[in-house]
Fold this sequence. Notes:
Elements: H1 2-7, H2 19-24, E1 30-35, E2 40-42, E3 45-53, E4 58-65, E5 81-84, H3 87-92, E6 105-111, E7 118-128, E8 133-135, E9 139-143, E10 152-157, E11 162-163, E12 169-177, E13 182-189, E14 192-196, E15 198-201, H4 204-209, E16 220-226, E17 233-243, E18 248-258, E19 268-273, E20 278-282, E21 303-310, E22 321-328, E23 331-335, H5 336-339, E24 341-343, E25 349-351, E26 353-356, H6 359-364, E27 375-380, H7 382-388, E28 394-404, E29 409-421, E30 431-436, E31 442-443, E32 446-454, E33 459-466, E34 469-470, E35 482-485, H8 488-493, E36 504-510, E37 518-527, E38 532-542
Parallel strand pairs: 2-9, 11-18, 20-29, 31-38
Antiparallel strand pairs: 1-3, 3-6, 4-7, 5-6, 7-8, 7-9, 10-12, 12-16, 13-14, 13-17, 15-16, 17-18, 19-21, 21-27, 22-23, 22-28, 24-25, 26-27, 28-29, 30-32, 32-36, 33-34, 33-37, 35-36, 37-38
Amino acid sequence: MKLKALLLPAIVAGLASSPDAIAQCPAQNLGTIESPAPNALVSGFVRVTGFAVNGNLISNVDLFIDGQADTNRVTAPGGANINLPRPDVTQALPQYQGSPGRHPGYEMSFKAANYANGTHTVNVRITDVTGCSYFLEPRTVRVDNARNQPPFGNVDLPLPDSSVGDTGVIHIAGWALDDRRIDHVEVYVDDLQERQAVTGIHRADVAAYYPDTTASIISGFVANLDSTRLTNGVHHIRVMAVDDQGQKGLLGVRRIQVFNNSANLAPFGVVEFPLLNATWFGNCFDPVGGPSGGDIVDPRFLMFVTGWALDTSVQTERGGLSHVYLEIDGVTIKDTRINCHREFLLNNQPIDCYGFYRPDVEVIYPGFQQAPNAGFHFAVDVGYLLTQRGFREGGHILQVKAADKEDQIRLLREIPITMECATGNLDPSPLGFVDDPYNYKFVNGIFPVLGWALDLDNVVQVRVLIDGVRQIDAVRNVDYAEFGLASPDVAAVYPAYPQRSNARWRFYLDTTKISNSEHDLLVEVLDGRGNVRSAGTRRFLVDNNNLVR
Ligand SMILES: [Ca+2]
Ligand SMILES: [Ca+2]
Ligand SMILES: [Ca+2]
C-alpha cells in the first residue's frame, strides 16, 4: 500500500520563485504529501507527513496554508521533523541509496482551529543544503472544527517485525496527542487488553514539531511487558489512545516474535548511583565509631551503590531474582544474600539488601512479580577496604551484578571509580550526582541540568564540562552553576556533610552548541580549600532538530 503512494507523487512540483534556486536544483525533485489524504476532513492537530528526495541533504521543510507567501507560513524555521528514514521510498528509488538525501521523510503539523471551517490548501516547501527550494504538489483539505479529533501519535518501540531481547521484556514506547486531552493509552496483545501505559513521559522531540500544544512536551508513554507470559511465536501489539470524550485513536500495530528459552533469561536492572568516574573516599586513619565487627568502621564517610533489578520468567522458573552483589576488580565485596543486615551505626537501617520498596519501578514494570520490592542499596566503607581488605588507593572497576535463582547472572553496570584515604588533613573529594539528564537521555535546546554536590571542605562552585570543555550557563551567562537549592533528600542520606540541605545545583546547558551525538557531562567542584575535582560523569545524547543551513 505504500508503493501505491510512491506511484502518485507529483514528480516535479512548482519550483520556488528565486531564479538562483531554480538554477541550483537537481534535474529530478521527487516528493509528495502523503497525509492528510486528498479532501480529508480534518480537525484538531493536522499531521502533515510525506517525503522529498533529490539526492541532496534536505535542510528544511516548511508548511504553508492557503498560499505560498511568507504570511502563509505555519512552521517556524526548524519546526518540522525531517531526514526521517523511509526504507520503502529508498527501496523504490534505489538511485538515492547512499546519497546525502537518503532519509527523505518529513513530519510536521498545523492546528485546524486556526482556520475557518471549509476548504483549505496545504503547501509544503522543500529546501536542501545547496539552496535549491521547491514546493510539492499542494493538497486540499476540509476543516471542520466542530468535530472531535481522534487521538494520534506513534509507536516508536517495539520496531516493526522485531523480536524480544535477551531480558524477556517487551519495551513499548511512543507518544500520543489529542485536540482535547489524552485520558489514557491502552496496550493490547493479540486483541486482548493487556494494560494501560504510563503517560506523561518527557518528549522534547515531539514538542519540537507540535508547537501548538503544551501537552506535546509530556506526550510520551511507556509500557513494559513480561514476554514470558506469552507463548513463543508471533504476537500483535496494538496501542490505542483514548481522549477525555472516550474517542479512541489507533497509534500503531507491531508484530513481534517471542522466542524465550526461559533458562537463558538473566535478570535486568539499573544502577542509579554512583556516577561514572566517581571518587570514593574513606577514613583510613582515625576511625571515630570504632570497629563494630562489621565492614563499616566510620559511618560518616559511607559511599553508596543504589539501583533496582528484576527478573522475567519467574512463572516458569523456580523463583526470580535471587541476589545482587558488588565486585571491585573481580573481588566480591558485598552480596545481598550474605551481607543484608540492620546496621547499628546507622540507626538500625537495613543496608546491603535487595528488596527495598520502589513504587517508581512498579509504575514502569507493572505485573513483574518482584515489583515494587525491586530496590537494592549498598553502603561501602572505603577506609575499611583500604586498611583491612588489601585494596590500594587509585583507580578500580566497580561491577554490580544481579543473579536469579537459577544462577543466570547479568552485569548491570561497570563503573570506574577512584578510591582514596581522606581525613581532615587530606583533601576529601566531592560527592555528586546529576538528577537530570539521566543516563542516555535525549536532550535538546536549552536544557536545565539538575544535580547536587557535597564536599567536606564546602562546595564553593559547581561547573559543568561537556567532553572536557567548560560550559557557560545559557541563562545566567557565567561558567558555574546556580548552587544552594533545597536538597532534603541529600541531607537525609549524608547527615555528616556541610551544606547538605542546600546542595542542589542547576545549570542551563545550551545543547544547540554541541553536536547531535553522545556526550559526557562532567561535574567539577571547587571546594573551600581551592581544590578542583571531578564529582562524576553522566552520559547523554543530544538531538537538536536544527537547521543545517
Ligand atoms: Ca479528541
Ligand atoms: Ca531469570
Ligand atoms: Ca575537598
